[in-house]
Specification:
The complex is a heterodimer.
Chain A lengths: L1 H24 L27 E6 L8 H10 L9 E9 L5 E8 L9 H4 L5 E3 L5 E3 L9 H5 L6 E3 L4 E3 L5 H5 L5 H5 L5 E5 L6 H9 L16 E4 L34
Parallel strand pairs in A: 1-9
Antiparallel strand pairs in A: 1-8, 2-3, 4-5, 6-7
Chain B lengths: L2 E7 L9 H25 L2 H32 L8 H4 L6 H32 L3 H11 L7 H27 L11 H24 L7 H31 L4 H12 L1 H27 L10 H22 L22 H21 L10 H11 L1
Helix pairs in contact in B: 1-2, 1-6, 1-7, 1-11, 2-4, 2-7, 2-8, 2-12, 4-5, 4-6, 6-7, 7-8, 7-11, 8-9, 8-10, 9-10, 10-11
The chains are: A alpha+beta, B mainly alpha.
The structure holds iron/sulfur cluster (3 copies).
């Protein structure tokens, strides 16, 4: 039964990734919001409407070194213990053969095409730019954390220093200066590919064309249409993995606990 | 698949909503439920209305005090409380929270108007006296003009309409969040209302023990409060059963998520058992007390404990829903720890909210003759007491 469930999930994942990709081919008429009844998307604003940023994470290249985690942390000055991106690590063992394998899974905001975090914001501090990037105006944010609840990917947190919502911005400030995001720049294996999916000649567009049927997104059943695509993904990790939780206790240099130790182990 | 997976590394995610949120949801639910309980005795007519008048006095007191304190808790749950005016500068029709921010002041002012009009006859009477209380009454009654009863009725009904808005928005705000399957069910808003009614009736029983004037209707209030608890608990049980059924028939992921959590986490297991027990005990005690009322007057001395249990059920339901559910990791394996810290975001916040409510209650009790006109229709009241006592 478990197997069947996974198999179905896998199907959905691929299909949904496909469905998410279809409109990209004909993106000249952009999906701007019309009337906005409750929980439909408010109009996008700011940003360059001729672009649509997305990311491919090529898991075959990722070695789980956390260079992205660290460089993002430094670039974006997230407070200790909070992360805009993190590489989840799993140990998978085959019960009959005893073989072990490691699964690494970089996570960040998916800059969803249908982001549930945007319509819930009561002051429109969280909004989606015309280039698809979802950002937070932290001068406007009231810190209600409604968006944190609404994101299915735990991609948001309340920044303890600014007391406002914080998340990955695809390093919009760097993109605007023609730089790559910190995590992409620092990636040892070249596993993170960011680019304009409306430009047919961009590396990401070419990779999407080449791998269309293999690309997967996280939690496709949520209908968020994530725009971070995974290549070389294992279906068991699409949603909350059926895993034993971690037994880790991460401390900072003063010995203060900043990581997590799970109960119930 | 013949494999096992261990999650090796994951960051700690702090819960984004603090216990303040529980306090807000608790107080506002008591507020609108007490408003409903006050209606028959305040704007009703005839025999029936008369029987609910003593209850209405307590219910008005409860709705006023809870309505005043609830927004404070809500404000405190914002990480940027000083920016609350952004809600009004950037109202957003797609967000239930934004809609709530517009409804809440409308509700607050309509409740203030309603309670004020309901208390005004007593204030007018208190004007005649001497001393400080009479001075306050002169100030609060704002002149000795009379209003027609229809005005009170209209304001009461307006407040009721806004109360319905509050019920809708507080429920919908949580239920629309698809990212948390446990919240994403249409039964949740209904359950908020029914358990709110349980808590409000519980508070009526408690205040009836400690604040009601001894002169009239005490046992009648107890009886009515117990009945409300019984009915609201029955409806809650029915709603819970419907929720469970919708899950077992595959129509709600919410149930599947709940069962999974109960299976995987010992905290959840304990909470589930406790919730079931508390519900059953409350129902049984309320039923016993209601039956016993006819035989023994001494029981009215401990009925307030049933009220406390009812308050606990209403509060604990919100704690489970709002706090425990936040501990379920959305993306990774396992559960986050729910640590209630001592500071103002934790325990002090919880105690502080109740302290503030108590202070408001005592202030109102001190300065406002909420108990109504003691000398009005003494014969009828005594007769009613004799009949039921
Ligand atoms: S991943 Fe989360 S925060 Fe990012 S756009 Fe999607 S819902 Fe919003
Ligand atoms: S925390 Fe800030 S960005 Fe998030 S919903 Fe609230 S106001 Fe909007
Ligand atoms: S794009 Fe920038 S903000 Fe987003 S994960 Fe990479 S470094 Fe962090």
């Amino acid at each position: 039964m478990d197997f069947a469930r996974r198999a179905i999930l896998g199907q959905i994942a691929k299909l949904t990734a496909g469905a998410a990709l279809v409109p990209l081919a004909s993106l000249s008429f952009s999906p701007s919001a019309h009337a906005s009844p409750i929980n439909s998307q408010p109009a996008r604003r700011e940003g360059d409407a001729s672009k649509r940023y997305g990311m491919i994470i090529d898991l075959r290249q990722c070695i789980g070194c956390q260079a992205c985690t660290v460089s993002c942390h430094i670039e974006n000055e997230a407070p200790m213990g909070s992360f805009r991106t993190i590489v989840s690590q799993y140990e998978v063992s085959n019960k009959s053969t005893g073989d072990m394998a490691t699964m690494v899974l970089p996570r960040l905001c998916n800059h969803c095409e249908n982001p549930p975090c945007v319509p819930v914001c009561p002051v429109q501090a969280t909004f989606q730019r015309k280039d698809g990037i979802v950002v937070v105006d932290n001068e406007a944010c009231v810190g209600c954390a409604y968006c944190v609840q609404a994101c299915p990917y735990d991609a948001r947190f309340i920044n303890k220093e600014t007391q406002t919502a914080d998340k990955c911005t695809f390093c919009a400030h760097r993109l605007e200066a023609n730089l790559l995001p910190a995590c992409v720049e620092s990636c040892v294996g070249g596993a993170r590919i960011i680019g304009d999916m409306r430009d047919p000649n961009s590396q990401i567009s070419k990779m999407i064309a080449q791998h269309r049927s293999e690309l997967m997104v996280l939690k496709p059943e949520q209908g968020t249409l994530p725009q971070v695509y995974y290549l070389g993904m294992d279906e068991r990790f699409l949603s909350r993995p059926q895993a034993e939780p971690a037994l880790w206790d991460v401390r900072d240099i003063d010995g203060k606990e900043i990581g997590y130790e799970f109960l119930d182990h | 698949m013949n494999s096992s997976i261990i999650e090796i590394l994951t960051p700690r995610y702090e819960l984004a909503w603090y216990p303040w949120a529980v306090q807000y949801f608790f107080l506002i639910a008591i507020s609108y439920s007490a408003l409903l309980l006050s209606l028959p005795g305040t704007i009703g007519r005839g025999q029936f209305a008369q029987r609910w008048q003593p209850m209405a006095r307590l219910a008005l007191l409860i709705t006023l005090t809870c309505t005043l304190v609830a927004p404070v808790a809500l404000l405190a749950d914002l990480h940027q409380p000083m920016r609350f005016w952004h809600f009004y500068a950037n109202a957003t029709s797609t967000s239930w929270m934004s809609i709530g921010s517009i409804l809440l002041p409308l509700y607050l002012f309509s409740v203030l108007g309603y309670v004020w009009l309901a208390w005004r006859p007593a204030l007018l009477q208190a004007r005649q006296g001497h001393g400080f209380a009479a001075g306050v009454a002169r100030l609060l009654s704002a002149g000795d003009w009379q209003v027609r009863r229809s005005v009170l009725t209209i304001v009461a009904l307006t407040a009721t309409v806004f109360a319905a808005g509050i019920m809708l928005y507080t429920g919908a705000e949580i239920a629309i969040i698809k990212a948390r399957p446990l919240w994403h069910t249409n039964w949740l808003p209904v359950m908020f209302v029914t358990t709110g009614m349980v808590a409000a009736a519980g508070l009526v029983l408690v205040l009836n023990r400690f604040m009601s004037p001894a002169r009239e209707g005490r046992s009648e209030i107890n009886r009515q409060g117990l009945k409300v608890i019984l009915v609201a608990m029955l409806v809650s049980a029915f709603v819970a059963a419907a929720w469970l059924l919708s899950g077992l028939s595959g129509h709600s992921e919410s149930v599947a998520a709940a069962l999974e959590s109960v299976q995987a986490n010992s905290d959840w297991r304990l909470s589930a058992i406790w919730a079931l027990l508390a519900g059953v005990i409350l129902f049984a005690f309320a039923a016993i007390a209601l039956k016993a009322r006819t035989q023994s007057a001494a029981i009215s001395r401990w009925v307030w404990l049933v009220g406390i249990l009812a308050l606990h059920v209403g509060w604990a339901f919100r704690w489970m829903v709002l706090m425990e559910v936040q501990t379920v990791a959305k993306n990774t394996a396992g559960y986050y720890q729910l640590v209630v810290e001592l500071g103002s975001y934790g325990l002090m916040g919880i105690i502080g909210t109740f302290g503030l409510w108590l202070a408001v209650l005592l202030l109102v009790d001190l300065f406002i003759p909420w108990q109504g006109q003691a000398h009005q229709r003494p014969h009828q009241s005594l007769a009613a007491e004799a009949q039921h006592g």
